[in-house]
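Can anyone check this?
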Amino acid sequence: MKADLCVEVPAAEVLRVRWADAAWESEQAYRLRRAVFCDEQGIFAGDDRDAVDDVAQLLVAVVSRPGQLDQVVGTVRIHESEPGVWFGSRLAVDAAFRRHGKIGATLIRLAVSSANALGCQRFLAHVQSQNVPLFRRLHWSVLSEETLLGHPHHLMQADLNMYPPCHTPREGFVAEGRAAR
């Protein structure tokens, strides 16, 4: 299944999507979220962090280049809201990497697959309306339309049959290749 989850990146670059476990990864992920949700979209003023961050598992997409510091270029968080019910939220991809189109999808796949390995029976997300087509392509269905923080969203649910359990989320998915951007 990992072959389906690979993301092409330029030669000599490596992209790893995995659970964050280093302080610098979390710091860069939170900085990326602020850039997307506060600065770019204006959904939050100053910072988007909330109480969910205290219980959530942060996932990151990290690009490694020879001779350069690693860089977080995407992130999402997951948490169990009640036994068996998991939520994904705060999916963000660095603007310079969005044209690639696979980083967000790979973050979503690892988010659902790792929760599935932990006993997830239902995986949900409040998805901004412009991102609904991506989630539908990834086998999610719309449960309802709603407005959150003044923006249109859809409550969506993943088809867990399409997300085999990933028991190694700290290793995650790795890709090498060309033409990431």
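Reply from J.R.: I decoded it. The domain at 2-176 is CATH 3.40.630.30 (Aminopeptidase).
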